[in-house]
Amino acid sequence: MGRWRVAGFRAAGVSCGIKGKGEKDLALFVSDLPAVSSVVFTRNLVQAAPLIWAKERARLSGIRCIVVNSGNANACTGPEGIRSVSRVVGEVSRVTGIEVEKILPSSTGVIGVPLPAERLLRAVPRLVKALSEDGFEEAASAIMTTDAYPKLTRRVIRVGGEKITLLGVAKGAGMIAPNMGTMLAYVFTDARLTAGDLRRIHRRCVEETFNRIIVDGDTSTNDTAAVVANGASAARTLSGEDLRDFELCLRELMEELALKIVSDGEGATRVVRISVEGTSTDREAERVARSVGTSLLVKTAVFGADFNWGRIVAAAGRSGVRFDPEKMEVFFDGARVFGPGLVPDPAGAAKGKRVVKKKFYEVRVRVGKGKGQYHVYTSDLTLDYVKLNSEYTT
After folding, report:
1. Does the structure show a pLDDT above 60 at 52?
2. With bands split at pLDDT 50, 70 and 90, how would you rate the model's confidence at 43?
3. 1 has a pLDDT exceeding 60
4. Which fold has domain 9-263?
5. ∠ CA(109), CA(110), CA(114), 5° rounding?
6. Spatial distance between the Cα atoms of 311 and 332, rounded to a whole number of angstroms
7. Beta-carbon count within 10 A of 393 CB
8. Closest Cα to residue 143, out of 244, 233, 70?
9. How far apart are CA 235 and CA 248, in angstroms?
10. Is 182 annotated as catalytic?
11. Is 223 helix (H, G, I), strand (E, B) or coil?
């Protein structure tokens, strides 16, 4: 079996002409068996046509097919955008024989440009014909926009001696903030489990992975994360300890995809884990972590390998969370650089100056002795990010 395979699923990616130059821009993922699914969308109030269509018409707990175009977000396109989604989904249904309500549409790209539906419609028969057990790499390439590379990952666990496979595909490099879904991400598994169990563990995993990454603090109009499980494995229906093992595996897979996204943050050169502890609640720790992780001054210091811990302290202090600054501590990969009494720690400064040159490191902020804790992953803000996003529509 090829590396990027999972039993009972096929995928394909082709060019339909949205991007031009023959670049792949239309993908299809299909379960050959009935499936259960869980889908989570962006929390942005402005949502793209495929999300509006799916929430009104799709059976989100029984998705068998996902059709994705890149190069055009089909967002802010009015009633015509909804009609375009309906036409494309209808054609996919006609050619595959899968019911319309079991098809999930996604789009990604520029906002406010009408979707060239005719191009997609002409390509659907060719796309379906290209479906293959080994088509996931082609599909992963077809959903990219500003991504530097396709993002795939795979995990295998055993239940009662039988193998269960999970295969993840994602895209994302910009408009990334911890506010679900932060990108497009799909996980396909041959596990057998109930729709209710899948929904519960999927949502927990989203909160612990995709909702913990920050590139630029923006949340897209198109963000979608889905898991589709078709039960093709010979393993028994998951419950109890088996279900907990599956959730751990799913979370690890989704965290790997999340880190691929933040590491590919449109010119990113470094990734930093911002860990906050000592608050009264986890929610307070989250507010501090987000304040630090979204700070442009912190992110530019990370880019320049500038040992400017003062920006971290300042960002934490403006988070809106009440804490005693006199008790605050900051660590770079375990070396304390700032300690109680609002005093720098010279002993840790030498190590801290070396740490900031690494491609990945942790900044830990302790603000008290409470039990609250939270972490996010953030990337640096680079010249390439500014250049790419200043020219994105031109």
Report:
1. yes
2. confident
3. no
4. L-amino peptidase D-ALA esterase/amidase (3.60.70)
5. 105
6. 13
7. 9
8. 70
9. 17
10. yes
11. coil
**Residue 212 DSSP label:** G
Q: Say which residue the tokens 């019911």 belong to.
A: 99
Find residue 164's DSSP bridge partners: 157
* Helices vs strands, H then E, count in the chain: 11, 16
Alpha helices in the chain (DSSP H): 49-57, 78-96, 117-129, 136-142, 195-208, 240-263, 282-293, 296-303, 309-317, 346-355, 383-390
pLDDT band at 173 (very low <50, low <70, confident <90, very high): low
Domain boundaries, the chain: 9-263, 271-390
> In angstroms, rounded to a whole number, what is the distance separating the alpha carbons of residues 309 and 349?
10
Question: Which residue type, as a one-letter code, is found at position 317?
Answer: G
Pairwise CA distance, residues 207 & 218, whole Å? 17
What are phi and psi for residue 148, nearest 5 degrees? -80, -20
Residue labelled with tokens 């595996």: 249
Bridge-based pairing of strands 26-31 and 224-229 is unpaired
Please tell me the distance from the alpha carbon of residue 365 to that of residue 330, in angstroms, as a whole number.
5
**Contacts of 298 by beta carbon, 8 Å cutoff, 6+ apart:** 292, 311, 312, 315, 378
Helix (H) or strand (E) holding 153: strand 151-159
End-to-end CA distance of the chain: 43
For 271-390, which CATH superfamily applies? Answer: ArgJ beta chain, C-terminal domain (3.10.20.340)
Give 321's Cβ-side CA count (13 Å radius): 33
d(CA 55, CA 16): 26
Q: Give the residue among 9, 7, 11 at the shortest CA–CA distance from 137.
A: 11
Q: Find the mean pLDDT for residues 268-284.
A: 95
Q: What is the rounded CA–CA span in Å between residue 12 and residue 54?
A: 21
Instruction: Please name the residue ranges forming H helices in 134-236.
Output: 136-142, 195-208
Instruction: Give the pLDDT band of residue 269 (cuts 50, 70, 90).
Output: confident
Three-state secondary-structure class, residue 158:
strand
**240: its two tokens:** 């109890």
Annotated catalytic residue within 77, 182, 189, 378: 182
In sequence order, which residues have a C-beta less than 8 Å from that of residue 287 and are 6 or more positions away? 319, 320, 321
Q: Calculate the CA 283 to chain-centre distance.
A: 21
Q: State the pLDDT at residue 176.
A: 45
